[in-house]
Design goal:
Carbamate kinase; about 450 residues; 14 helices; globular; VC0802-like; about 40% helix; binds aspartic acid; 15 strands; alpha/beta
């Protein structure tokens, strides 16, 4: 039978009305038999996310500030309201009392944060009449906090093998010593992907409050188009470049076994959303842009030396300096007699002098310069790199907008064209590229 794993984000489960929508969505397709809930999110502008309140509650308790009790009351009210409005039978009050006693006794930060998903999972399971599977029984971390993917997969597979519809709360799991541990923020996406892999789902649906990914940041481009289908590799480029997409680690478990992910909107459930898969259902015959994303605040360390290309080990020496300083490089375009190393400006700042000195000592360059405040923009898509017309269009669009291209980086990936411009030109560049290819 077809199996769909569904993850619902915080805004999708922020109040009883949203719980009802979730139930309707699940009832629309009986293949939707696993749910991963987040903690209740914001109900309106200016509202608090329950996870933020839980972190606050923990720091207040740690500081000996008695207002942690008020914060916990605010959190409790969110769950009690949902339970009452949906007429649920489960004794959520008893769960809240246990949590209060544990916080009083000095419970750890991750335990506190995880209770948002834990309680929401209990309520949702009761509302749906499904089994509640505590994530502490099926998600295992190593002592260093990394996921024990193999143990998790084996245990989860076994415990979910009976095929009973189940609710597995997102975001947390258990350490070898029994303490609760969480993923980083937004980590319910990862739990969903792990469950999808364990049950060998046909699809992993990630339900949120937008109808899929946008081709560009809507703060820069007005009403950008949605991306209807994208590959995991393209999405990885877009998210690396700063597009806010799924939690980075949520792609890996499903990508690995070829399960497609679909981003859907709980508030607009008939919208098809964005499909992310290994290969696209239909490969485009013409060059197609999937999205444009970028980041500001890079520095470029440029090293020039005549006959550099014949000097064995030149590149290694330059990179060694960055490695010694603990700075990872993002890009490294090179010419015949020059290498540019693009690094985060913030990471470079404390090591600036040492880097210049070390490179000078090791490589005796003719010119060594640093250019700060640079933005990197990736135009990601298919069939565009091999098509010479695409690059020409991209650069003429930039030139028409009067933007100076400071760097071009092609890499060996066929998926993106990367340009470096001054930070001040960042927004205009994205707009110009979008308008050329999409607008
Ligand atoms: N509730 C957690 C957070 O706010 C995890 C999640 O929603 O995915 O980060």
């Amino acid at each position: 039978m077809k199996k769909i794993v569904t993850k619902f984000g915080g805004s999708s489960l922020a109040n009883s009305g949203q719980f009802r929508k979730v139930k309707e969505i699940l009832e629309m397709d009986p293949a939707r038999c696993y749910v991963i809930p987040s903690a209740p999110g914001r109900r309106f502008d200016g509202d608090d996310k329950v996870t933020d309140l839980l972190y606050r509650c923990h720091s207040q308790r740690l500081a000996g500030d008695e207002s942690w009790r008020d914060t916990l009351d605010t959190i409790a009210a969110r769950y009690l309201d949902i339970a009452e409005e949906l007429g649920l039978k489960v004794d959520i009050g008893a769960e809240l009392d246990t949590i209060a006693a544990n916080i009083e006794a000095g419970a750890e930060r991750d335990y506190c944060a995880s209770r948002g998903e834990y309680l929401n999972g209990i309520l949702l399971a009761d509302f749906l009449g499904w089994r509640f599977m505590d994530a502490a029984k099926v998600i295992f971390f190593n002592a260093d906090g990394t996921l024990d993917a193999e143990k998790t997969n084996v245990v989860m597979m076994a415990l979910l093998a009976d095929g009973l519809p189940s609710v597995v709360p997102g975001f947390y799991g258990v350490l070898p010593d029994g303490r609760i541990h969480t993923f980083s923020r937004g980590g319910s996406d990862i739990t969903g992907a792990i469950v999808a892999r364990a049950v060998l789902a046909d699809t992993y649906e990630n339900w949120t409050d937008v109808s899929g990914f946008l081709m560009a940041d809507p703060r820069i481009v007005r009403n950008p188009r949605e991306i209807s289908a994208v590959t995991y590799a393209e999405l990885r480029e877009l998210s690396y470049m700063g597009a806010s997409v799924l939690h980075e680690d949520a792609m890996f478990p499903v990508h690995k076994v070829g399960i497609p992910t679909v981003i859907r909107n709980t508030n607009n459930p008939t919208h098809p959303g964005t499909l992310i898969s290994l290969h696209l259902p239909v490969e485009p015959t013409v060059p197609t842009i999937s999205g444009i994303a970028g980041r500001k605040g890079f520095s470029v360390v440029a090293v020039e030396k005549a006959m550099m290309n014949t000097e064995l080990g030149f590149g290694r020496k330059v990179l060694q300096v960055f490695e010694e300083a603990g700075i990872s490089f993002e890009h490294m375009p090179s010419g015949i007699d020059s290498i540019s190393v693009v690094v985060s400006g913030e990471a470079l700042e404390p090591h600036r002098e040492e880097i210049v000195r070390r490179i000078a000592d090791l490589t005796q360059p003719d010119v060594l310069s640093i250019h700060d405040h640079m933005a990197i923009i990736a135009t990601v898509g298919r069939g565009m790199v091999s098509n010479c017309g695409t690059a020409a269009r991209l650069f003429s669009a930039m030139s028409r907008a009067g933007i100076n291209v400071r760097m071009i980086d092609q890499g060996s990936s066929e998926l993106s064209i990367i340009v470096g411009v001054d930070d001040a030109d960042f927004e205009r560049t994205i707009e110009a590229i979008y308008n050329e290819f999409v607008g």
